[in-house]
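Give me the 3D structure for Protein kinase domain-containing protein.
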Amino acid sequence: METDDGYKRKAEIALLVIVVLASLAVVALLVALSYYCYIRNKVAHRRKNQKSVDHNEKSEFANLQIVAEKGLQVFTFKQLHSATGGFSKSNVIGHGGFGYVYRGVINDGRKVAIKFMDQAGKQGEEEFKVEVELLSQLRSPYLLALLGYCSDSNHKLLVYDFMANGGLQEHLYPVSNSNVMPMKLDWETRLRIALEAAKGLEYLHEDVSPPVIHRDFKSSNILLDKKFHAKVSDFGLAKIGSDKAGGHVSTRVLGTQGYVAPEYALTGHLTTKSDVYSYGVVLLELLTGRVPVDMKRPPGEGVLVSWALPLLTDREKVVTIMDPALEGQYSMKEVVQVAAIAAMCVQPEADYRPLMADVVQSLVPLVKTHRSTSKVGSCSSQHANRLSPAQDSVGPSV
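Predicted structure for Protein kinase domain-containing protein (398 residues):
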């Protein structure tokens, strides 16, 4: 009898264990299923948001019609093939993610730059439409003029004014295989380039409604004509901004490392102040002769903004960041003023950055009135203009 009771007790315990384990398994299964549903809903929500952003970006230019209007000339592929000598390698003057840029001569004898868009898919198509639509409407002496385009079947080409001295980047950082003859830019020339580039962004932000945000402003997109006058170029990533004061648009984070504003990189919220940050980085390039990111430099100096920002408002230290290629031939009053403007532009908080109109107003007094007397490559520490006491101060003036 005792043996039967023992077996019965063991059977009951075994049954209880089985029931407990089965219950735990069911609970674990329910938890796993709940977590799966949570993750699935979260991913679906993110995809929905991303699709919404993508749809907004596409719909912004969805109704564009590429037609011969607003002064743009429509070229055939054959015409541009002929203008570039069959897209000869000897006529290549630039290259980027979009494709190659060729030097060419069109039928009326004008020299032009022809961008051959070789980026396949919707992104390349979108960038092509953005440039044609925007540049057909924008008119400023500080923006690179679009003369026409070609949209034959799968060929997408854009035709611009030819800029004889290429990009600013090629003169700040000369390389042996450059397509232009690098020139040593003196201080006065750098100031004029800074002002003209600022006027280009000011036009986009202040004179166009709603404003246009360039989104890829950098030294290689500042092109120089034969007299080293600057024009802002490359609008493939441009975005129509918010028409509300202080408003932003949400978009995918695009741009070039070292130039992208921190708040845009973190949140995808794009404003005109994002361009102001990029402009500040270019000002630092003009001051220092350094690229925005160079991890081969000593510790602490790899990121231009992080290294330079603490030194920009210190009169004694700002001279230590100046480009050695200038050989000390500059006015310290002007250096202090430009450094203060740069410091304001690259502030981590977007609200603390100036408007481009303020930047222009601060730079105008620093640029000589008689621009025709300036010579690229010449060095002079004597500047004709006089700064007011306020401009002689270390603190920001914008």
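The two ends are 100 Å apart (CA to CA). Let me know if you want a second pass.
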